[in-house]
Amino acid sequence: MNICFVSGNIVADAEYKEVPVGGVHTPRCRFSVAVNEKKSNGEKIVNYFEVTLWRDYATKMAPWMKKGRKVNVFGNIRLNKYKTSNNEERAELQIANATVELTDKKPSEEVPATRVIAPTVIIPEELPF
């Protein structure tokens, strides 16, 4: 079982774009989360996790993913290995298939224009009472 939970701050505004996946342009939202860790000797360590959101969820969440926001992220952790343009090998921890929860909501905060709220449909025949 591969389940990951991190709680931290978004490092920079999210990158939102449509990328080709199987010949179809698919929405993708990527951002980094910094997680602080304190050692017993008082030393502070910062770990960075790359988060990727896909499809409709990426479109809905991208406007909210701003630098400094506090978030909880749930998902699958992967080690993404790649080569830079200088042919250097690098690796990053990536959280895929993620769900994000904002933990610093402010009551006066305006809702981004792209937020979509689906109407609730109640079918009387399906009610349990």
Query: What is the assembly state of the chains in this entry?
Result: single chain
How far apart are the first and last residues' alpha carbons, in Å?
37 Å
Could you describe the largest sheet, including whether it forms a barrel? 5 strands, mixed, barrel
CATH class: Mainly Beta
- CATH topology category name: OB fold (Dihydrolipoamide Acetyltransferase, E2P)
Determine the fraction of residues in helical runs and give it as a percent range. Answer: under 10%
Low-confidence parts? 114-120
Average pLDDT metric: 85
Query: In terms of structural class, how would the helical and strand content be classed?
Result: mainly beta
Tell me the strand percentage band. over 45%
Order of helices and strands: EEEEHEE
CATH architecture, by name, is Beta Barrel
Instruction: Using the CA coordinates, give the radius of gyration.
Output: 18 Å
Describe the strand arrangement of the main beta sheet, using strand numbers: 1-3-4-6-5
The overall number of domains is 1
Number-wise, the strands total 6
Number of helices: 1
- CATH level-4 homologous superfamily: Nucleic acid-binding proteins
Structure write-up:
With 129 residues, this protein is mainly beta. The protein has a single domain (4-126), classed as Nucleic acid-binding proteins (OB fold (Dihydrolipoamide Acetyltransferase, E2P), Beta Barrel). It has one helix at 55-61, and strands spanning 4-10, 15-21, 24-38, 44-54, 70-83, 89-102. The chain has a five-stranded mixed barrel. A hairpin with a 5-residue loop joins strand 5 and strand 6 (89-102). The chain is globular, with a radius of gyration of 18 Å.
